[in-house]
C-alpha cells in the first residue's frame, strides 16, 4: 500500500518526474508485468499500474534492503502514529544520522555468500 499511497500523494502534489525504489523484487516484477495477474494483491497492483500509466515519468527500480534503511526507519517510526498520511517537519534522530552518513559518503557493506 505504501507504493500506491506514495504515488497518489506525489501525483496530487504535482510532481511529474518521480523515482520509486522497491526493496522487494517480487513487488517490482508484479508492478512491471503486462500479463494477466492471478495474485492475492492483484487489485493493489492494478491500482499502482494505473497510476504509473498517467501522464508523468516514473522510474521504478530495485534497491537492496540495505539501501532502503531510511524507509525502514520511517516505517518503524510510523508505528507510533494513527492510520493515515502524516508529514514530518524534521526527520527523526535515527534518520538524521543516516542522512548525515550518506552526505559524508559513508558506505555499507553487503554480505553475500555463494552457494556451490
TrEMBL record:
CDD domains: RNase_H_like. Transmembrane segments: none annotated. Pfam families: RVT_3. SUPFAM superfamilies: Ribonuclease H-like. Residues 5-78 form the RNase H type-1 domain. One of its GO terms (molecular function) is RNA-DNA hybrid ribonuclease activity. InterPro entries: RNase_H-like, RNase_H-like_dom_plant, RNaseH-like_sf, RNaseH_domain, RNaseH_sf. It comes from the Eukaryota. PANTHER family: OS05G0353850 PROTEIN, POLYNUCLEOTIDYL TRANSFERASE, RIBONUCLEASE H-LIKE SUPERFAMILY PROTEIN. This is RNase H type-1 domain-containing protein. It comes from Acacia crassicarpa (northern wattle). The lineage of its organism: Eukaryota, Viridiplantae, Streptophyta, Embryophyta, Tracheophyta.
